[in-house]
Amino acid sequence: MIASKFDTDVRKTHRLTQEQLTQYHEDGYVIVRGLFDSEEVSLIREVCDNDPNLANSLRTVINQKGEPWHAAVWNGLNDSLVSVVTRLTRIVDTAELILGEECYHWHSKIVQKLPYDDTVINWHQG
Questions:
Q1: How many structural domains does the chain have?
Q2: d(CA 75, CA 98)
Q3: Distance set, CA 84 to CA 37, 43, 60, 118 (Å)
Q4: Beta carbons within 8 Å of 103's beta carbon, 6+ residues apart
Q5: In-domain check, residue 126
Q6: What is the pLDDT of residues 9-50, one digit of tens each?
Q7: Does 51 reside within a domain?
Q8: pLDDT value at residue 125
């Protein structure tokens, strides 16, 4: 199973700097370089590109300009890699630091767009 290859060591955490927190609160986002190492990114990409369960759950969404993009949304947790990632200490701790309070899993969402695709996803872009 690919999830078992993923580093789920609870001691592996990544604290945001005050500068990163400030950027998040000013800009509404922060890019955390090094949160995942290159091997982990490759594993996530492999799952997103090749998992038939994920591929079968993708639905086409049409934005306000009539442009299509694809998304999968689901509730609940399981032992798939994309579910394991949401429970990693470094993810949970980072989310809680940004929010300033305890957080919990509500749902998962994966959006697929081709590289360099300028299609607007209205959930996140204006």
A1: 1
A2: 22
A3: 16, 12, 25, 30
A4: 92, 95, 96
A5: no
A6: 544 566 788 999 999 999 988 888 888 888 888 988 888 888
A7: yes
A8: 47
Interatomic CA distance for residues 31 and 21, integer angstroms: 10
- Measure Cα distances from 45 to 34, 50, 81, 102 in Å: 16, 8, 10, 28
Domain of 40 in residue numbering reads as 2-112
Query: Which two structure tokens, joined as six digits, stand for 80?
Result: 């798939």
Residue 119 lies in a domain: no
Tell me if 123 is assigned to some domain.
no
Sign of the Cα pseudo-torsion (62, 63, 66, 67, in order): negative
Strands (E), the chain: 59-62, 68-74, 108-112
Note the pLDDT of residue 126: 44
- Residue 94 and residue 53: Cα distance in Å, rounded? 28
Q: What contacts 62, CB < 8 A, 6 or more positions away?
A: 68
Overall pTM surpassing 0.85 (yes/no): no
- Looking at residues 70-92, what average pLDDT do you find? 85
Q: From the CB of residue 81, how many other CB atoms can be counted at a distance below 10 Å? A: 20
